[in-house]
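Predict structure. Chain length: 252.
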Amino acid sequence: MSNLYSYVRVNRPAPKCLATSQEIRDRGSAFVGSVYRASTPEEAKAAIFHHRNVVHAGKKAYEISAWRCMVLKHGKSGLGGPDDFEVQAGYDDDGEQWAGSKVSRVMQHEGVLDAVVIVSRWFGGTLLGPARFTHIETCASEVCRTFKRIEEMDECISTLTRLDDMLASLRQELSNLTQNTESATGGSTSASDKIHNAEGRGSRQPDYTAVQRDLDITKARRLVGARESAVKSVKSLLSKKRTTLASAEAER
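Prediction complete.
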């Protein structure tokens, strides 16, 4: 526990809860699932500590948890590919016998990695029997699925950012090549070139905050498709411009 206390005391960002489930109530007991990122078992345990002692400070609850982390094997560098890594998993019943393994199985079924799932149970005084495990699994499943959507959204945003940078670079290249072609041929700028040049000059880095916040995966995928089409279109124009410029220079 001393390591966890030191984690809280040093200047590190507090663990951030990415998602919580709907609350389930049954005969006085309440169940809520939460999920945090955790790339190592140590990070997972720090998140559990934070959840129990900061998020739920003063609220007596069973904090049932499980974690699955993809880590480097001892003595490996990662350069050897997937075989250099292994999944380290664990769970903590926190007094709710067999409950931690239920959460762990849900994580495995949903394919969740580098995360810790915590299902908090507030006991209402009435024994629920096997029903409690159903509630625990339901809460765990909900946050696991949300976590997977967050991961997919992060991947979409990363792809969009890369495509936006590529598109801006290509449009600048097209603008420069268009000017060179006009000088070489004495021609004027076509309508399509004017559109792309205007887009290049007036473009700003798009803001994806709302899409990311709403986890609108469908819209994010559409945006990726649109950016890919735009990149293809500008590359096609660049190819034509290069051919035109090469012909003009050859005729000199």
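Summary: The mean pLDDT is 89.
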